[in-house]
Design brief:
calcium ion binding; transmembrane helix; Cadherin-17; 5 domains; Immunoglobulin-like; Cadherin-like_dom; mainly beta; disordered C terminus; cell adhesion
């Protein structure tokens, strides 16, 4: 007997002796789908099952998720040679096949499922090794500080993954130990016995333990005690005097520095100071920015000052904290200060009510029609004189006193559909300062352009003698504003006397064809007028000819000359044969 065979027999003997089951069907049997449950962490070389197969099967093979752990002997003995790990793979899907001596499959492959059962072989771990939290001084016992979170990768919802938290150390133990607690199963961190004072200690360092039924893990928790806002800001002085500034002082200029102090813990919401203007600046022309390091307040010009609106501002500041004051503490007169801002007059340019004025009129308005108006005011109350600049077509004039704008010449949308000019407002007297605005006049279309040919048609001819009626296509347009659907012209002959020889046929809204009605034409030049109607409101009609009011029909005559063909052809600057 070989060494391997002796080992197999020994393993089976040990298994039978250990379990007491040696009969057929408990640890051996025919090849069929089976499921086995095995605890993780067991020693290797554990026998799982002995498969049997009838001849001609002589050997077995194993495939699937073996992970190099599961093997099968040729005689069907299935075992694992390494310890299993449920956290690596909880279920192994295997297949067993029985083969004959030639390697052909006789039975299977048959599915074999190995379920790996959990044991408590993983210690719990915190998401981080160090936690930080904070609690305000004088907070009530039971106040939540935060939540600790630990995790155990053993099987969920089993005793192996149930975790418990507890505090094992507190440093310092002042005013006593047991100032904090952690909920056993949730990990919620809370203030326990009493309110804390930052004067006792600004910081506590705690050691927290999390454990399952076999393992323990520690983490460090730092709790910072936050000062409460029980001190108000106090101005260094209550009156910052008078300050005189011209109204053209640049926006963004710092005009004053104010200072208050707060006795709460530095660089916290309890000691940071915010300054508000609570009186004397209803238009919001000033603002105060706080220096985060010194708590100084820089008073700045936020919007242009205006002597004509308010010449004197009696400003009142309030200094306050972003954090609310504790109950029983209120701001008092020490948190308020004032100063007087005197604004002096500066001669300013006239101000238009808007920078772009717009108007719309029909292009056929009569001369002298009012087409728009502009308005401007001088901040110092001086009279204003209006004038136009950039009226390159000479279409407009402006009343220098009222700012009303009138037409002085025929307007033409086809020449310029949006007419732009500049309006100048100049103060009368003073320094004669001026400012400008834009006036845009939109012209709406009227039907004032008759239809015309889209181009000049030249050098058109028919061959003579014509063998069949011929035709030519021409296109029309006009210069008025077109609808989205495009123009819809109608076409007709300019004289009824031409109808026996010629006809005009509409192709679409812009194209038509001129055709001969027979072939009995003389050799000459024909003048064919065409009427084109645009169907507008009012409708306009144009009469055109081809080319240049003349339709030239050119004939080619063939004659014999000394036995050779000779062609005499009419000459034209541009020759385009018409269709026969």
């Amino acid at each position: 007997m070989t060494t391997q065979a002796r080992l197999d027999c020994l393993c089976l003997l040990i298994l039978y002796l250990t379990t007491g089951y040696g009969q057929e069907g408990k640890f051996s049997g025919p090849l069929k789908p089976m499921t086995f449950s095995i605890f993780e962490g067991q020693e290797p070389s554990q026998i799982i099952f002995q498969f049997k197969a009838d001849p001609p099967a002589v050997t077995f093979v194993l495939t699937g998720e073996t992970d190099g752990i599961f093997q099968i002997q040729p005689d069907g003995l299935l075992y694992h040679n390494k310890a299993l790990d449920r956290e690596t793979r909880a279920v192994h899907k295997l297949q067993v096949s029985a083969l004959d001596a030639h390697g052909n499959t006789v039975e299977g492959p048959v599915p074999i499922t190995i379920e790996v059962k959990d044991i408590n072989d993983n210690r719990p771990t915190f998401l981080q090794t160090n936690y930080q939290g904070s609690v305000r001084q004088n907070s009530r016992p039971g106040s939540n500080i935060g939540t600790l979170t630990a995790h155990d990768i053993d099987e969920e919802n089993t005793i192996n993954s149930v975790l418990g938290y507890k505090i094992v150390d507190q440093i310092p133990k002042v005013p006593r130990d047991g100032l904090f607690l952690v909920q056993t199963y949730s990990g919620t961190f809370q203030l326990a016995g009493q309110s804390l004072k930052k004067q006792d200690t600004p910081q506590y360092n705690l050691t927290v333990e999390v454990s399952d039924k076999d393992f323990k893990t520690l983490c460090h928790v730092q709790i910072n005690i936050i000062d409460i806002n029980d001190q108000i800001p106090i101005f260094e002085k209550s009156d910052y005097g008078n300050l005189t500034l011209p109204e053209d002082t640049a926006v963004g200029s710092i005009i004053l520095t104010i200072q208050a102090t707060d006795a709460d813990e530095p660089h916290t919401g309890s000691s940071k100071i915010l300054y508000r203007i609570i009186q004397g600046d209803s238009d919001g022309r000033l603002e105060v920015e706080t220096d985060l390091q010194t708590n100084a307040g820089y008073v700045k010009v936020k919007k242009p000052l205006d002597f004509e609106t308010v010449a004197v501002h009696n400003i009142v500041f309030q200094a306050e904290n972003p954090e609310p004051l504790v109950s029983g503490v209120q701001y008092n007169a020490s948190s308020f200060a004032s100063f007087r801002l005197i604004v002096t007059d500066v001669n300013e340019t006239p101000q238009f009510s808007q920078q772009v004025f717009q108007a719309k009129v029909s292009e056929d308005v009569p001369k002298g029609t009012k087409v728009g108006n502009v308005t401007a005011k001088d901040p110092e109350g001086l009279d204003i004189s209006y004038s136009l600049r950039g009226d390159k077509r000479g279409w407009l004039r402006i009343d220098p006193v009222t700012g009303e704008i009138f037409s002085v010449a025929p307007l033409d949308r086809e020449a310029e559909s949006l007419y732009r000019v500049e309006v100048v407002a100049t103060e009368v007297g003073g320094s004669s300062l001026s400012s400008t605005a834009n006036f845009h006049l939109a012209l709406t279309d009227v039907n004032d352009n008759p239809p015309r040919l889209v181009k000049e048609y030249t050098g058109l001819f028919f061959c003579y003698p014509p063998k069949e009626p011929g035709s030519l296509i021409f296109e029309a347009t006009d210069d008025d504003q077109q609808l989205l659907r495009g123009p819809h012209f109608t076409f007709s002959l300019g004289s009824e006397s031409l109808q026996k020889d010629w006809e005009v046929s509409k192709i679409n809204g812009t194209h038509a064809s001129l055709s001969t009605k027979h072939t009995n034409f003389e050799e000459k030049v024909y003048h064919i007028p065409i009427r084109i109607n645009d169907g507008g409101r009012p409708p306009l009609e144009g009469t055109v000819s081809l080319p240049g009011i003349i339709l030239a029909v050119v004939f080619i005559r063939m004659k014999r000359n000394k036995g050779q063909d000779n062609v005499e052809r009419a000459q034209a600057s541009e020759v385009e044969p018409l269709r026969n």
